[in-house]
């Protein structure tokens, strides 16, 4: 426990209750209970307004604080940059913007250009706009459809929701932007075709994408947008053979490949980017959360030179270039924080730690599954893991969503913050989600596992 000044914090709580509209949170309960205020963070720990300590197993609630809390060197880098030069529209460059772009591209062979923005939703919107402009200028407007995958999530704007494969998140926000077409998910645990597993299922799941392409007409498809590992849709690691077949398909039909790394990017899976586990060659890579570990707002839409060149081949045309702006893409704090964040990851060997601790946590979660029949499957890569809860392992009937949330609440009561799919996939909001910071130790993981073990026992008996 920390001893905070409760007089000051009481006023803060009341101001929050009266004036703050929180993200992803029903507010009716706050009429009779206090909103949670996170006052301080250090390493893997955060403290609320009551001084209670929590071990954060979801990196800021939404897979963001990859290098942990309280990193003074990132804060100092941001402060120093803001004093020297805080902002100018991205129509001009900045020193940290140029340096981070060069350093980022050095981690991404085959890609060459960085377009700065503010959030993952916005980065994905930039890629969608690029695809549409390429279609208009190079394909007579015909090759404009964008494919997205069921269970994937690409953002919260109306157009990114149009590419959203999570029905609950989309509910009530239509009508949506036309020209977005869904392809099936690739969760082997819930395979569309019974009797297939491993590489056979991976290839079949990818072939299902080709079936959609042929149905829609290959000459109408501009891009395929996929998460390398599905995040909020259930932490879905694609089966062996899937990505290799996807690469063949997009090359066969001249379809641009857009990889959404907003969650997986910058170390979360043990490589700089999730797609790098699979040898694919994207045309667009979008990223946000881990780029600066939440110390400043920044997102990037990274493209190949092939894509960039399609916007500069007709200078006599006044509409040939990408006529887009992101206001705070010009804030120098983001790339300054991102440079310092990358320094920490490299100096402390956090990619290697992520891989080692991820394997350890996967083993510990599988050991939990040996003790709790309610765990149907454990899956993940690096420190990005999920445990799908079921009522019956044979039928794979999903666990009741209220009980899944009760596990999350029990862990919170114990002082451990975990996540779960929530109001995303109708009938399948049943996966516990874990994404501890890349600095996690075996002791941290043991504490997380102990909390989940106790919560499962109390909620499911």
TrEMBL record:
Keyword rRNA-binding belongs to the record: no
UniProt-recorded Gene Ontology molecular function terms: transaminase activity
Family indicated by similarity: Belongs to the class-III pyridoxal-phosphate-dependent aminotransferase family.
Alphabetized UniProt keyword annotations: Aminotransferase, Pyridoxal phosphate, Transferase
Protein name: Aspartate aminotransferase family protein
Taxonomic superkingdom: Bacteria
CDD domains named among the record's database cross-references: OAT_like
Reported cofactor(s): pyridoxal 5'-phosphate
Alphabetical list of InterPro entries matching this protein: Aminotrans_3, Aminotrans_3_PPA_site, PyrdxlP-dep_Trfase, PyrdxlP-dep_Trfase_major, PyrdxlP-dep_Trfase_small
Gene name of the encoded protein: yhxA
């Amino acid at each position: 426990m920390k001893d905070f000044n409760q007089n000051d914090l009481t006023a803060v709580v009341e101001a929050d209750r009266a004036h703050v509209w929180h993200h992803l949170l029903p507010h009716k309960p706050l009429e009779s209970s206090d909103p949670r205020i996170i006052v301080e963070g250090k390493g893997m720990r955060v403290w609320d307004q009551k001084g209670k300590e929590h071990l954060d197993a979801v990196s800021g609630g939404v897979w963001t604080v990859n290098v942990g809390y309280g990193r003074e060197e990132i804060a100092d880098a941001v402060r120093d940059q803001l004093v020297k030069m805080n902002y100018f529209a991205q129509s001009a460059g900045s020193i940290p913007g140029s340096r981070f772009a060069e350093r980022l591209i050095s981690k991404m062979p085959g890609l060459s250009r960085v377009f700065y923005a503010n959030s993952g939703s916005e980065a994905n919107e930039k890629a969608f706009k690029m695809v549409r402009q390429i279609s208009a200028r190079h394909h007579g407007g015909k090759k404009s459809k964008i494919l997205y995958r069921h269970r994937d999530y690409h953002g919260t704007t109306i157009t990114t929701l149009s590419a959203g494969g999570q029905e609950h998140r989309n509910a009530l926000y239509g009508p949506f932007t036309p020209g977005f077409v869904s392809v099936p998910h690739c969760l082997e645990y819930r395979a569309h075709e019974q009797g297939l597993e491993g590489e056979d299922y991976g290839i079949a799941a990818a072939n299902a994408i080709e079936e959609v392409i042929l149905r829609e007409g290959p000459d109408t498809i501009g891009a395929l947008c996929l998460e390398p590992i599905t995040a909020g849709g259930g932490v879905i690691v694609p089966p062996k053979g899937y990505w290799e077949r996807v690469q063949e398909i997009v090359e066969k039909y001249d379809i641009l490949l857009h990889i959404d790394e907003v969650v997986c990017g910058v170390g979360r899976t043990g490589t700089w980017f999730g797609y790098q586990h699979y040898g694919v060659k994207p045309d667009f890579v979008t990223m946000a959360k881990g780029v600066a570990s939440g110390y400043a707002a920044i997102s990037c839409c990274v493209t190949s030179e092939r894509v960039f060149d399609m916007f500069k081949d007709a200078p006599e045309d006044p509409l040939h270039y990408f006529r887009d702006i992101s206001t705070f893409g010009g804030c120098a704090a983001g790339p300054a924080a991102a440079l310092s964040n990358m320094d920490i990851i490299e100096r402390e060997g956090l990619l290697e730690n992520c891989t080692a601790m991820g394997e350890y946590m996967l083993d510990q979660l599988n050991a939990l599954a040996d003790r709790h029949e309610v765990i149907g499957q454990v899956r993940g890569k690096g420190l990005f893991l999920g445990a799908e809860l079921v009522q019956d392992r044979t039928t794979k009937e999903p666990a009741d969503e209220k009980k899944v949330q009760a596990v999350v609440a029990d862990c919170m009561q114990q002082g451990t913050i975990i996540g779960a799919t929530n109001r995303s996939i109708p009938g399948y909001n049943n996966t516990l989600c874990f994404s501890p910071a890349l600095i996690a130790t075996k002791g941290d993981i043991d504490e997380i596992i102990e909390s989940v073990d106790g919560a499962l026992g109390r909620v499911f008996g």
